[in-house]
Design a protein that fits this description.
This protein is an all-alpha fold. It is built from eight helices and two strands. The chain has one domain (about 1-180). A two-stranded antiparallel sheet has the order 1-2.
């Protein structure tokens, strides 16, 4: 059982990394469709890059559920933990190098994305293979996922005037309507 769950999580690392990398271009390929802006990065800000993983991870998790969802009573909790852990790790790792260096480094950001996805998937595996957690926590996790997507959507269109939201190429915020 655990080997099967582990194998799915390793596959998830590769899926989220590859699809997440391609996800970077979905908004521009859509012709700047505002609906796509809700779920895909619209600029080169750190904040918008946090959208690289949620949809690929959610898609993989839905597919994964049909194969191993019944093997763990913590499936929803584990997937939610991964969904939240990836952006947290990206922010921590990114600013850990960027503050001293002073500018973004593409290879470092790609490495950070892969490392964040890997840590989140391994954490998800660990949660899935633990004893069953509270069913109330599962319901809370579903609400937490919805909140995460709402926050991403709202802050794409109404970003605060903070460095994490600044497009590093244009100096704009969100979908580009505001300049710093």
């Amino acid at each position: 059982m655990n080997r099967n769950i582990f194998s799915w999580h390793i596959a998830g690392i590769f899926f989220v990394f590859l699809v997440g990398g391609a996800w970077h271009f979905v908004y521009s390929l859509s012709g700047s469709n505002w609906l796509i802006a809700l779920i895909a990065p619209v600029n080169e800000s750190v904040w918008e890059h946090l959208k690289l993983a949620p949809i690929p991870l959610l898609l993989f998790s839905i597919f994964e559920f049909f194969y191993i969802g019944k093997l763990s009573r913590n499936f929803i909790i584990a997937c939610t933990a991964a969904l939240y852990l990836i952006p947290i790790l990206i922010v921590v790792f990114h600013y850990s190098y960027r503050i001293p260096v002073g500018h973004p480094i593409l290879w470092a950001d790609i490495l950070i994305f892969g490392l964040s996805v890997t840590i989140a998937e391994l954490t998800s595996y660990r949660i899935m293979t633990q004893a069953a957690l509270s069913p109330k926590l599962q319901f809370s996790c579903i609400i937490a996922v919805l909140i995460l997507f709402v926050v991403f959507a709202v802050l794409t269109f109404y970003p605060p005037n903070r460095p994490i939201f600044v497009d590093s190429k244009t100096g704009s915020y969100g979908i580009g309507t505001l300049k710093s």
